[in-house]
Amino acid sequence: MLIRADNLVKHYPILSGIFGRKVSGAVRAVDGVSFSIERGETLALVGESGCGKSTTGRLLTRLIEPTKGTVRFDNIEISELGPEALRAARRRMQLVFQDAGSSFNPRMTVASLIAEPMHLAGASAADCRARVQELLPLVGLAAEHAERYPHEFSGGQRQRIGIARALALRPDFVVCDEPVSALDVSVQAQVINLLTGLQREFGLTYLFISHDLRVVRHVADRVAVMYLGRIVEIADKTTLYKSPQHPYTKALLSAVPAHRPGAARTRTEVVGEVASARAVPPGCRYHTRCPYAMAVCRTEDPELFDLGGGHRSACHLVRITH
Amino acid sequence: MDEAALLSVRDLTVAFETRRGSFEAVRGVSFDVRAGKTLGVVGESGSGKSVTAMALMQLLPDSAQIMTGSVHFGGRDLCSLSERDMLKVRGREIAMVFQDPMASLNPILTVGHQLMEPLRLHMGLGKKEARARAEELLALVRIPSPAQIMRAYPHELSGGMRQRVMIAMALSCGPKLLIADEPTTALDVTTQAQILELLRDLQERLHMSVLLITHDLGVVAEFADEVMVMYAGQAVERSPVAALFDKPGHPYTEGLLRSMPPLEDEDPETLPAIEGNVASPFDLPSGCAFHPRCPYAWDDCRKQTPMLAPLGRDHDAACLRVPC
Lengths: 322, 324
What we know:
Shape of chain B: globular
Order of helices and strands of chain A: EEEHEEHEHHHEHEHEEHHHEEH
Distance between the termini of chain B: 21 Å
Largest sheet of chain B: 8 strands, mixed
Largest sheet of chain A: 8 strands, mixed
Number of helices of chain B: 12
Helix content of chain A: 25-40%
Order of helices and strands of chain B: EEEHEEHEHHHHHEHEHEEHHHEE
Number of strands of chain A: 12
Number of helices of chain A: 11
Strand order of the largest sheet of chain B: 6-7-8-3-9-10-12-11
Strand content of chain A: 15-25%
Strand content of chain B: 15-25%
Number of strands of chain B: 12
Oligomer: heterodimer
Largest interface: A-B, 40 and 45 residues
Strand order of the largest sheet of chain A: 6-7-8-3-9-10-12-11
């Protein structure tokens, strides 16, 4: 096991009063999330906007401090590290963002952008140069691209630069946060192939955050479905797509537009919209939208129930009928 | 012109004047939208799909100009109408729904106020009638408690609710044609499914035609009757929806379909991706604009610009591999 999250919680206070000094509640962005990822594995976190998937990615790398919970990375307790040790550990965990371009300094050349993490880690200029020349062809860019500026590149190429930058320090673990969502359809497949190819070549471990269930089915080994700050179902990819158990997973899967016209499908009725993380419903947080909700769902918060083979689902109905 | 066509666009070319020079965003595009049917326009950023819609509505920015072409709608050429006459068409006969409802709603006016305004202006309703009709419209788009939402401000609503309000507004004057420009792109999948179902149901009940602009072939598969695929400002393929998915005629369409990861079928280890990048309008490749990315391209593709040629019933593709 390379990385393990235990009961991660991130609550943001809601401030009120004219000076914003009163705390009147909390946005429960991440509300008790636990999982682990094996070395070389890809775990996908899926869910709709506001479900806490990106916050979870940032908590893992301790880019934000958790309210509660721990992260263990390669037997190091990340949550207890001091600033110096944290910096050292972070070199082994990197992030790839949705819109790579917006995180680049427009005045820096591609070479200096890619080398920046190495430079900060104290590598010599010669080492940086050599590593950049090594990385460019790896991510499908040409050597002469090194001296150009980010605005000269298309979205897909900028994402390649972002990936090269993430790989500069030879990390073990990469959080990919919606890495292809902003790209044109015809370019998405290229970047997905690049990410899966690099994983095979260097044995990388990925946390792949996405709302796109097609992309997730292609890249993931295991999938965790999040709803309002919680994992409601987790299973290996084949099981999750073939026999989803949680009503929310079923709804998500049935909402994906078909591959071709007139494809036979059973549409699970999804009612209403995601409740707010400011006012999480009592009991099961999905009960307000669930067509199968029972009395117990309104009062008791379901735990993840083990269905065997690593398949777990947080649903009273699943627990009762199993 | 096709008898049943409500909207007929012929040879539309739109040019932009920018500091980097001028370029043609739409190049000689022709299509029909039939009465009561949906035409899906598919393309990536810069393919000219949204510019085409703006040109139809005569809503192009000052930097853009229609160079050639005609837009026939209900027996008139919209390109030759005065701004005054066009005002009567826009909103009343042709309405639009955009990707980002927050950008089109006024943040300081209530939903009710914004819904009632066109009813009073375009339809000449009194205040009381307008209110009743507005509540009816909100019920039509399946908003649970219309009277309450009437008093709400846009920021108080979720993305899906705002899009429902926009659709209600677009339908308020009973348009014959609805132009929906990426109506579900900003929404979550479960909300997207709800909105698409709503649009389909409304179209049937109100016998509207829909011009659906999207980058998502899945949305097209679910919703469109006919499809036009655009690449670098040109229509590269036009087809009934089933034929497009069964027998794509243009290598670009074929590539798009193949690169979509499957949800049920066997998953390939490497996705069959389209190589290269989307062509820049400032630096269009010679001949067929798709040739640098095309796996089938040969010498002629660099020299000749292919015209749309028939492949089957109502099915055309602009590729030299399709015999004229």
